[in-house]
Design brief:
This protein is of the alpha/beta class and 207 residues long. It is built from nine helices and five strands, in the order βαβααααββαααβα. It has a five-stranded parallel β-sheet with strand order 2-3-1-4-5, with helices on both faces. It binds adenosine-5'-diphosphate (ADP). The site of adenosine-5'-diphosphate (ADP) has 15 residues, from helix 1, helix 6 and helix 9.
């Protein structure tokens, strides 16, 4: 009788803004690991022509659509920012679609294990799609300074985003694996390669 292939190990990578998630997942991608990025999927499901974008335009009005037919994210953000009911409406539309697309991409992944990178892994409930949670952990001071340099933005803007995300302590409490990213990029690379080997050996045993 034909055996079903065992389901592959899925590692969720999370961390606050500027913690180094992208840097870590880029390093894992270099090792041949498929990275599914929840932010990319979130943009994919509202591309011009999608059912989601039509529903959003019907609900909020055409003023949230750019002349070229794409979503005006800042106009939409302004509409839901101070209105919890509107935000809940939007999330109840988008979260299941995002989740479905993530599941599809995970199912198509061919690498020994796959990675779901999501800044809001817990907040969005996407942690239920992964077997292990890897936290890229950094001090709040480093998060702030690295993001300010990367995005050329103000401390206030970064702090506002950090406040909307889980605290460092809460994330640490929910992580299975932690990479501390408080040193050089070379030190980070060494830690990532060590973790990659660890995950490959876990994969050999199945999730
Ligand atoms: P995230 O994806 O979690 O928001 P990034 O991976 O984009 O974070 O990292 C934020 C910024 O900090 C980027 O510009 C990145 O190059 C830089 N960075 C990340 N880790 C380090 C490190 N160990 N040393 C120096 N710069 C770093």
């Amino acid at each position: 009788m034909e055996k079903h292939a065992p389901r592959k190990l899925v590692v969720g990578v999370t961390g606050g803004i500027g913690s180094g998630k992208t840097t870590v997942t880029d390093m894992l991608a270099e090792q041949g690991i498929d990275i599914i990025d929840a932010d990319v999927v979130a943009r994919l499901v509202v591309q011009p022509g999608t059912q989601a974008l039509k529903q959003i335009a019907q609900h909020f009005g055409d003023e949230i659509i750019h002349a070229d037919g794409s979503l005006d994210r800042s106009a939409l953000r302004a509409k839901v920012f101070a209105d919890a009911d509107q935000r809940a409406w939007l999330e109840s539309l988008l979260h299941p679609m995002i989740r479905q697309e993530i599941q599809l991409q995970l199912a198509q992944s061919q690498s020994p294990y796959s990675v779901l990178s999501s800044p809001l892994l817990f907040e969005s409930g996407q942690h239920t799609l992964v077997d292990k949670v890897l936290l890229v952990d950094t001090s709040e001071e480093l998060q702030l300074s690295r993001t300010q340099v990367r995005d050329d933005t103000s401390a206030e803007a970064v702090t506002a985003i950090m406040k909307a995300q889980w605290s460092r302590k809460k994330r640490q409490e929910h992580a299975d694996l932690i990479i501390l990213n408080d040193g050089s990029l070379a030190a980070l690379k060494a830690a990532v390669l060590e973790l990659h080997q660890q995950l490959l050996s876990l994969t050999a045993k199945g999730p």
